[in-house]
Amino acid sequence: MLKYLDHRVIKTAFGTCLAIAIANYFGIKYGATAGVVTIISIQGTKKESLKIALERLIASLIGLCISAILFYSFGYTPVVLGLFILIFMPICIKFNLFQGFLVTVVLTTHILSEKSVSLKFLGNELGILILGGTIAILLNLYMPKLENKIKKTQDKIDSLMSEIIKDMSADLLCNCVSINEEKLFVELKKVIESGKILALTNFNNALLNSSTYEIDLFNMKRNQYGVLKRMRYHFRSFYITYDQSLMISNFTKKIGESVGKTRLLSELKAELITLKYTFRRMDLPKTREEFENRATLAQFLNDLEDFLDIKTEFIKKYSDK
């Protein structure tokens, strides 16, 4: 049970008690509703909390005005409440204010119970909303730091990519596939998706000077993962080892060992150019089988180039800023 007792649970429990206590202290009617507003306003990130609080405030202002007019004009009956919902719900859907729909309906039921649309009571209802939303926003200013988790996730991705690429290097020599291949690819995809979620959460917790660097970083890793998947399928066509296979295997191993080491990128790009030039000067294939294998090796080498280019473009994007 303790593993579920995170900062959000603690903030929700504390915020609910605090909202109700403050509401009771200032004599706000239906003060328990302020606790409910706090519960539904504490979100996973700071930006989400601010966005939803603003949506609820706008929706409630519109909704309370409509309900006040309807109740004043047609009386305080459940039928009028139903008419209010019939009018108010489409407005929330149309203007993307649905986060404030339920809270506003609850506040409107208070009007129905009190049978009053006086400015004093409408102020009471707005007080409930503002109190609950404000406490939620203040509590959500505290968010645990995610930088360490993001760094560990990035290191795990680099480690998995390195292992996959080095396995491919060995596979080129034996015309076989590592028994751990599927497991490594499944884990790599899972860790990349986890990293993207962490990066997005960290971005939404930065109210000032937010950067998309971490989001772009994991998107870059996701694109490299796509290239690795393409490279993986080439091994269905490899069944003969050539001199080119040995050369590409050595180059592939170097790439595997360089994952996460940006300083080696320019050296690898230069070696790739040399390797392509060497291949063009080699004797042409003499059989159909040799031609097909050489063509697949050439495509495998192009994929290695794409893998490096994706990282190069990412580095260029942030070095230019």
Written account of the structure:
- The chain is mainly alpha-helical.
- It folds into two domains: 2-139, no CATH class; 147-319, Putative aromatic acid exporter, C-terminal domain (Four Helix Bundle (Hemerythrin (Met), subunit A), Up-down Bundle), CATH 1.20.120.940.
- It has twelve helices and no strands.
- The chain has helices at 7-25, 32-41, 46-74, 78-94, 101-114, 119-139, 147-174, 181-204, 213-234, 243-258, 265-281, 288-319.
- The radius of gyration is 30 Å and the shape is elongated.
- The model has no long low-confidence stretch (mean pLDDT 89).
Keywords:
mainly alpha; 2 domains; single chain; 0% strand; 321 residues; 12 helices; elongated; Four Helix Bundle (Hemerythrin (Met), subunit A)
CATH topology of the largest domain: Four Helix Bundle (Hemerythrin (Met), subunit A)
User: What structural class do helix, strand and pairing data support?
Assistant: mainly alpha
The helical percent reads over 70%
Mean pLDDT: 89
The profile of the biggest β sheet is:
none
**End-to-end C-alpha gap:** 46 Å
User: Which CATH class of the largest domain is shown?
Assistant: Mainly Alpha
Radius of gyration: 30 Å
Determine the number of helices (DSSP H or I, runs of at least 4 residues). Answer: 12
Q: What characteristic shape results from the CA principal axes?
A: elongated
User: Architecture of the largest domain in CATH?
Assistant: Up-down Bundle
